[in-house]
Amino acid sequence: MINLRTAVLLAAYKQWADQRLYDSLAALPAEEVSKERAGVCKSMLGTLNHVYVVDRIWQAHLQRQPHEFKTRLEVPHPDFAALRAAQQDMNAWFIDWVAGQTEASLAEVIEFAFVSGEQSAMTAGAMLLHVVNHAAYHRGWVVQMYFEIPARPPVADLPVFLTEVYPAHTLA
Questions:
Q1: Which residues pair with 78 in a beta bridge?
Q2: Spatial separation of the C-alpha atoms in residues 31 and 165, rounded to whole Å
Q3: Alpha-carbon distance 88 to 160, whole Å?
Q4: SS3 state of residue 110
Q5: Residues 6+ apart with CB under 8 A from 122
Q6: pLDDT tens digits, one per residue of 5-36
Q7: d(Cα 100, Cα 105) in Å, to the nearest integer?
Q8: Which CATH superfamily groups domain 4-171?
Q9: Residue/partner pairs of 153-157 with CB below 8 Å, 24 or more apart
Q10: By three-state DSSP, how is residue 80 classified?
Q11: How far apart are CA 166 and CA 12, in angstroms?
Q12: What is the pLDDT of residue 141?
């Protein structure tokens, strides 16, 4: 589904976009990050915990190991600084994981169970793509919450990353 070059790009993009968002959130008043808002995840912090939990779940699937989560809405890190550090470690894990992959390993089909217990299977590359896409989707939720503050959200779009950080990919 995805090749090694794309996997490297996606992992680097996720790390960069998350860093940009967390840097921006750190500059907001602390109460805004944890303030209860409309939505399933209830706050910016809740939404970011959801992203982290889902990252951990897919990490476990990629490692072919069980995970400890009973729901995707758990909040393992109610403290922003702790969550930020945990997400940085998680993103570093994905960077390292991708560095150890090959075209063949990215195409390998891995069986897993969703949190609901339903069984499924996906390629390792598709799992990485889901992790990156899922995080981008929920960064959008957090960005929408900025407008309730009101505050200017960070720009973390892929074209910005490609232009500012990874320009070699803008030509390929």
A1: none
A2: 31
A3: 20
A4: strand
A5: 109, 110, 112, 130
A6: 999 999 999 999 999 999 999 999 999 999 99
A7: 9
A8: dinb family like domain (1.20.120.450)
A9: 153/24, 154/20, 154/21, 154/23, 154/24, 155/20, 156/16, 156/17, 156/20, 156/21
A10: helix
A11: 9
A12: 97
- Domain boundaries along the sequence of the chain: 4-171
**Residues 98, 58 contacting (CB under 8 angstroms):** no
How much is the pTM?
Answer: 0.94
Q: Where are the beta strands (DSSP E) in the chain?
A: 109-113, 119-123
Q: Tell me, what's the pLDDT at 167?
A: 75
Q: Which residues contact 111 (CB under 8 A, 6 or more apart)?
A: 119, 120, 121
**C-alpha dihedral sign at 153, 23, 42, 73:** positive
Residue 74's pLDDT band (cuts 50, 70, 90) = confident
Of 66, 65, 83, nearest to 75 by C-alpha is: 83
Burial of 67 (0-12, 13-18, 19+ CB in 10 A): middle
3-class SS at 99?
A: helix
Residue with tokens 């959008």: 140
Over the Cα atoms of the chain, what is R_g? 16
For residue 113, list its beta bridge partners.
Answer: 119
